Amino acid sequence: MTLRLVGVPLCPYVQRVAIVLHEQGLAYERVDIDLKWPPDWFLARSPLLRVPLLLDGERALFESLVICDYLDALARPSLAPPAAWQQARERAYAALADELLAAQYRAMDAIDEEAWEAARATERRVLEHLERELAGRYFGGEGYRLVDAAYAPYAQRLTLLEAWRRDRAEADLREGLPRITSWLAALARRASTRAAAEADFAERFRAALHAQRGAHHYV
Question: What is the pTM of this model?
Fold first, then answer.
């Protein structure tokens, strides 16, 4: 049965699922919709009215991390660690990636300096915590796992945003965090991260950034 990934362009949560599909070598069809005018079949299957939505035949799954867990169960070898405690710990840290993505978006859409600084402070706080938790090249050591896929869209966007940031006197969010710097760079350049994004991702992301209220901080 063909897997279908329903999403919208540039969505980091859709990209997260696509990354796992690429990592596990699972064939799928990408279906982009307009959330302003969603089709009836989407309304019937997505109770949160959000993407991503995974269709496996007539069955539907929502929530990106749940979808990633399901896809990982379809393939071998698994991208989850073998021990129950480590599985739970990495699942919790995968959920923390959503805090980073939300703060990153708040910075891009910041209505004023206070909102901009608050969003950046949240990003920095989470990154400082992660700096203490990283165990190697990837989150849990030398092997790439589901938790890494959860952070990869953030890493790709942060790489671009920090390069575009206008105020060069302000510290880079990764400054003084060598493990974070190395980890996020590895995630951003990984083949699955690039393959799961649009071919012209940087250009499209920059164009979308222009529409945000905090765009003047970057471009």
Answer: 0.96
